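User: I'm curious whether this sequence folds into something compact or stays loose and floppy. Could you predict its structure so I can see for myself?
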Amino acid sequence: MTNIAIFASGNGTNAERIMDYFADSSLARVVLVISDNPDAFVLERARRHGVESVLFSRAELADGERPLELLRQRQVGFVVLAGYLRLVPDGIVRAYEGRMVNIHPALLPAYGGKGMYGERVHRAVIEAGEKESGITIHRVNGAYDSGDILAQYRVAVKPDDTPDTLAAKIHRLEHRYFPEVIETEIGKLQIRERMRLLLISNSTTAGEPYLKYPIGRIGRFLEGVDEVAFVPYAAVTFSYDAYETKVQARFDEIGVRVRSVHRAADPSRMIREASAICVGGGNTFALIKKMQEQGLCAAIRERIDSGIPYVGWSAGSNVTCPTICTTNDMPIVEPASFAAIGAIPFQINPHYLDAHPEGHAGETREQRILEYIEANPGVWVAGLREGCMLQLEGGVLQLTGNRPMRMFRRGVEPFEVEPGSDLNFLLG
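Assistant: Here's the prediction. I'll summarize afterward.
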């Protein structure tokens, strides 16, 4: 059960709709309403619903310390802005990154920003001669109306519309869709908190035996597991039998049996019955083609969502992304699509290299990724250097290794994140 807090400054019809929607939910409940306006009718609506309401002064909300302490005391896991007219302080934004949403009565990025709310927005839309308007539900960051857009819903603007009639149309959209989007986002967060992923850049460090450097981490991650379902389909120049044997030799050190899906009459069923899953590296195109043909992407996603451990290295890490588009591999076969498991919302480039060999006139790895983000705005790409891995447990994403990870996103200057840094911005 996720506890929801609502920030509101006015009448509170959206807040009341959310309270009603989650009144009998087993997923989430509204436990707190916070306002900066002593005359806000939302406080009365909260009282009628038996929901705690707290009034803070504008100075207290601008500082953020006391409201954040209250959110923590009430074990709030998700924050909703429903007609809240001020910037949320940075401390609360950081604490609830990816877990705070707002609704705006227009189709952002148009008609947004400071001072654009309520009747002002509808009047501006009509005066501009727009043919449609709508609502935008977006994540909250440190600026007005500029967080990542989660959903937009549209309505026609008629020649005889007034700000009042347009507002009525917008309210109907808000009351219908805002609670549904909140429910979807909380559902995703709860799944993510169950996920257990260990995503390794590479299997072998130069001068060391196969899987030697990560085997200790894999052993700790798989504690309590005595058998894994192994997907060997990234192997191209050697057999699946040989791949299974190679991995088993290393997993003997941690007391885990390796059973390859290529031996199963129904590989998808084997995945659905497994207590842990490992996907090996090799050629990503060969891997995803076979996985798609056997329905393994959906089967693996179901098991990841249920909370069983998943370990992947190289191509096995890449296929947990929404697509395989950031692989380094040559497309030696043609899969049905580039779509992958989609367990994480960002892309990984395993084996990320900074080097540009002398005399080499081709593009660097960074230039290739810059091309990708130019064509795919809004997507983060993690350049995961060799010897490093990402671990997701309890909803927390961590980088392990002795090297930083390079981050890419269109409109953002590439930057480095060190092991131990807060990486949950990637999960938003």
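Summary: The first strand starts at residue 2 and ends at 7. Residues 163-194 form the longest helix (32 residues).
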